[in-house]
Structures are given as structure tokens and as C-alpha cells.
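BUG: 3D viewer hangs when loading the predicted structure for this chain

Environment: internal workstation, default settings.
Expected: structure renders.
Actual: progress bar stalls at 90%.

Input used:
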Amino acid sequence: MTQPLSAAAAEELVRRHAVQGATLMTILHAIQDETGFVPPEVVQPLARVLTLSRAEVHGTITYYHHFRSAPPARITVQLCRAEACRSMGTEALKDHIEGHTGCRFDSGHAEDTELESVYCLGQCALSPSMTINGEIHAKVTPQKFDRLYDAAKDKSEVTA
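C-alpha cells produced before the viewer hung:
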């Protein structure tokens, strides 16, 4: 589990990203890009800098599915489950992925892997599509998933 940020570290993180003209959304994206998630400790400094309430900042973070309030798993799989991908077999692929990884979609971390449903990756003509650790993959079959996932697992073990 990640240690909470100190007040000084949270202030510094906000100071670096809350530049003139930056919106709450751009700042949240920048913070998440840097840290992998939006630490809860930045809510108060962000609210103060942007003259918003803590509830407005927290509400934005929790409303948008993209923002994380905790560090991601070492391997994050996002599977498109929108209509075009559904018509091309994404639900059967979902079942295969759950069996291969031993994890369930949208239920948090399990053994350093997290499976998330998303609803359109903009690859409708190349469905079913997914991302693994942010890298997009199209025309994914169960066999292709196994290769991609196993490669991501090998890579994450090397960098751990």
C-alpha cells in the first residue's frame, strides 16, 4: 500500500500543475499522469488554489471513471464493452480474460492485476479492443490476449 503524501508534498504536486489558466480537469489529468492516481491529499490544496469547495474537487475525481484515488495494479486491463465490441465477441473475451487472469472485471485488484470495463476506446472498426497498461490493442482474440497479458506480466516482473 502506498504511503499518504505529506502536506508539503501534496502542496508541491498541486503547485507544479496548477499553472495559470489550467482547469481542474487538466490539473487532475497531469497529477494522475505523474503519480498514476490522484492522491486524496491533493483535494484540499486543489480546492484552495482553484477557489472551489473540497466537495467539488472530490466530486469531479469520483464522477469521472478515468480518475483513480489509489495506485493502479501493476497490470491494468481495460476491455471495451460498448456495442460495436459486444457485436464482435467482447463478452466471450471477457469470460476468457477472467479465466486466464483469475480476476473479475470491475472488482478491484487481485494479484497485481486489475480488470476494468470501459465503454468505447474509439476502435469500433477494429473490435474487440482493449488496453493493457494504457497501450491499445485491437482485434483481440483469446489467444492474442494471452500473449499480450503474459508479455505484460513478464515486463512488470522485470520492473518490479
